[in-house]
């Protein structure tokens, strides 16, 4: 007699294979804004005094405005009680103060052309438009298809080569925003080779930030931190070069292991569904644009020359967001002219304009996220150390809590604090200016060298750039990859744990060897 069949409920049948829905990035940021708004009702506000310090970098004297240690003061009322400044529910700067429900607009228009949000938003839209023209010519697709045919047996070699190059870029000249346009080329390439967009993000942005975190000469991070702390700039390079080699190798191995798994079974990718956009593009163009014409080669040559121009500008002339955006615009314009002359995809001048519009529109979502993330900081009152904000109170509280801790534990807590603080101040030089004037003298009191304090800063600042939603660069790259931040965070949290453990090892070694 056979056993009776037990019919499972629909939920029991499907729950096993049903993937938990991840909230949209916009939703997550909204709730972060809500939490920060509520904190303004609880945490009293305070501020620091600032001063200017001088330091030498590559033979040049530079200055930086920094906070004065032990200058923190709570804002108090007439009775001497600490003041809380609850953010308004609604309002603008000209209408009673910033309001929580204005976080998107105020975030988008904050800052200037040299940084987030407005500068990075403009940067994302301009390079999106420029690459829209370049992609319209079909040169990138034809070049990738030609490369695939030539490197089918050595496709995996592309990953380590590019990973090391991007990591070196992060270490040498603080490569960050520059990875956004590169991701536009690398992501379609690796997907065409049988990997996924996550691998493309790892090769470009992740690699650059590992280099950024372990650099021995990054002008935007370790150089500023050392100068502020009174440590000789570029000192400790030997230790940091070894750290860069080990961390870059570890990040590469982690990426290669994941890439191998995806190559074997693409459906295991967290971006499998969104990667369909790129896969369909190649399927539709595989036969049409398989011929790699002279015009295509000239367009790619233009891109190559443009990249060299950008690297030269960043390393030799100090070019930043405005200049780099203009360089990419020129690159797109020249590529479009070549496309019209050589009739690539029957391209016309009108097609150039439409391609620029379409390219920019593809990244509007990423640009909006940058503004939303900046809105978080607007709600809590900003990041200025001289303004009365809850962020300054948190910084002061953390500094006070470190006093009296054992050396190794204090250094590790500094590392943890810098990692958390990076959520609020993603700028490497900005975070150094706010935290190092407090952490450097504090390290003297607890028996930790200032070099280790700088080490804790650079590792905490750099590694968490890979996951914090307030990073304009990360959001820009994820926008290019069409990956939801929540999905990325779910995958990245494991790598964060891995990198955090690796950073902890170097912090402990630094304390033990009196680095």
UniProtKB/TrEMBL annotation:
Membrane topology according to the record: Multi-pass membrane protein
CC terms in the record's Gene Ontology section: plasma membrane
Listed transmembrane segments: 26-46, 114-135, 155-176, 182-207, 241-259, 294-312, 324-342, 363-384, 404-426, 466-485, 497-513
Keywords: Cell membrane, Membrane, Transmembrane, Transmembrane helix
Pfam families for this protein: DcuC
Localization per record: Cell membrane
NCBIfam families, per database record: PRK11588.1 (NF008611)
Stored PANTHER family: BASIC AMINO ACID ANTIPORTER YFCC-RELATED
Protein name: Uncharacterized membrane protein YfcC, ion transporter superfamily
């Amino acid at each position: 007699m056979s056993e009776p069949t037990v019919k499972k409920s629909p939920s029991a049948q499907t729950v096993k294979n049903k993937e938990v829905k991840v909230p949209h990035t916009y939703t997550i940021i909204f709730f972060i804004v809500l939490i920060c708004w509520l904190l303004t009702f609880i945490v009293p506000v305070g501020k620091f005094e600032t001063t200017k310090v001088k330091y030498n970098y590559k033979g040049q004297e530079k200055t930086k405005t920094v906070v004065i240690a032990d200058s923190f003061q709570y804002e108090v009322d007439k009775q001497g009680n600490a003041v809380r400044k609850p953010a308004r529910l609604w309002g603008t700067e000209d209408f009673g103060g910033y309001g929580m429900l204005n976080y998107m607009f105020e975030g988008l228009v904050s800052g200037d052309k040299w940084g987030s949000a407005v500068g990075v938003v403009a940067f994302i839209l301009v390079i999106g438009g420029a690459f829209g023209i370049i992609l319209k010519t079909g040169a990138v697709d034809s070049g990738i298809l030609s490369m695939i045919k030539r490197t089918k047996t050595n496709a995996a070699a592309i990953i380590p080569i590019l990973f090391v190059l991007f990591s070196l870029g992060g270490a040498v000249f603080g490569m960050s925003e520059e990875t956004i346009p590169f991701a536009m080329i690398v992501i379609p390439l690796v997907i065409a080779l049988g990997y996924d967009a996550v691998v493309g993000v790892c090769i470009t942005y992740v690699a650059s930030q590992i280099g950024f975190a372990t650099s021995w000469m990054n002008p935007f991070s370790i150089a500023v931190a050392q100068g502020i702390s009174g440590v000789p700039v570029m000192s400790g390079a030997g230790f940091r070069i070894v750290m860069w080699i080990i961390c870059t190798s570890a990040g590469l191995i982690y990426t290669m292991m994941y890439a191998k798994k995806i190559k074997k079974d693409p459906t295991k990718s967290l971006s499998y569904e969104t990667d369909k956009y790129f896969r369909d593009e190649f399927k539709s163009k595989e036969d049409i644009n398989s011929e790699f014409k002279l015009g295509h080669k000239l367009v790619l040559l233009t891109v190559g020359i443009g990249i060299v121009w950008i690297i030269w500008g960043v390393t030799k002339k100090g070019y930043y967001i405005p200049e780099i955006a203009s360089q990419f615009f020129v690159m797109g314009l020249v590529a479009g002219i070549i496309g019209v002359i050589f009739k690539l995809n029957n391209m016309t001048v009108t097609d150039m304009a439409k391609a620029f519009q379409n390219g920019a529109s593809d990244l509007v979502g990423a640009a909006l996220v940058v503004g939303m993330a900046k809105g978080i900081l607007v709600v809590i009152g900003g990041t200025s150390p001289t303004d009365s904000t809850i962020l300054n109170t948190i910084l002061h509280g953390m500094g006070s809590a470190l006093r009296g801790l054992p050396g190794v534990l204090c250094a590790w807590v500094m590392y943890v604090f810098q990692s958390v603080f990076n959520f609020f101040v993603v700028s490497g030089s900005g975070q150094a200016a706010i935290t190092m004037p407090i952490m450097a003298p504090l390290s003297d009191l607890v028996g930790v060298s200032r070099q280790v304090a700088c080490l804790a800063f650079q590792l905490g600042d750099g590694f968490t750039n890979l996951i914090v939603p307030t990073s304009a660069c990360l959001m820009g790259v994820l926008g290019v990859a069409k990956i939801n931040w929540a999905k990325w965070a779910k995958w990245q949290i494991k790598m964060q744990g891995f990198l955090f453990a690796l950073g902890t090892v170097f912090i402990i070694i630094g304390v033990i060897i009196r680095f």
